[in-house]
Amino acid sequence: MSLRAVHVLNVPSLHQVTENAALALHSSRLAQGVKDEGEVTICGYEWPKFMVMGHRGSGMNMLQSYDTRLKCIKENSILSFNSASKFPIDFVEFDVQVTKDDYPVIFHDNFIGAEDKGVFKEQRVTDITLLEFLSYGPQKEAGKVERPMLRKIKDGRIFEWKVEKDDSLCTLQEVFEKVERSKGFNIELKFDDQIVYKEEKLEHVLRVILQVVNKFAKDRPILFSSFQPDAALLMRKLQSTYPVYFLTNGGSEIYADVRRNSMEEAIKVCLRGGLHGIVSEVKAIFRNPGAVTRIKEAKLGIITYGQLK
User: Residue 300: CB partners within 8 Å, gap ≥ 6?
Assistant: First the structure.
């Protein structure tokens, strides 16, 4: 079996995929009815065999990079999602966390930082209120002073969060209300890898998110995904309206929870919990192309993310 990547711009139709393209394929395990060739209806939405998703909207910000494309539009923002929606994509992907006062907000990092009296200080997103969270970055209200954001990356370096086109932080409700309605949402349920969560805590957070989704999603295509296996499994138990995918980097990093350490374990998680598929880091697929066959045999969907280089 051979795999090769194709650039989105080289695909004339998202429903006409070149042979052997290693991209987002979806099976018919939970199909309610077959449509056009390769399309199935799952949870009320016609899923094509090939889908394109905008990661954090128009792409993640890498503030340490010399590549200006990675510092063009503020990631995980309304501006980023709507800018991505102008391209031939099916979904936008974003990260959801829940604040201390139970508001689902859009933010990737576990901590949010700024300078305070000349010293860098950061706060855990889930430990602050919605008003505290929204005080960072550009403000929606005229005359309101912002807290300039700083970002601490994995190697400890700190960068000013400066992009060409900035935008305010936002809530999950705002995203439903302000993002192009034709685009689906891949909602990543974000949890800290360093924390062991009790089921009661996970359930509370997921129910808060579901309240907003159930109220505002309407007919918008939705799927949930998470690197936290217990969160993914619990979301599947709490609702049956939307597909749930398990996120994995396929062994690129090793975790205490063995369920996160290989494609084989990811398949087991999906089958045991009735999940709909796997979102895998793309290099893990290229290192282990046979996993694609096993995933298809298990009648699971597969979505890939990441860089090929």
Answer: 27, 29, 267, 270, 271, 275, 276, 277, 278
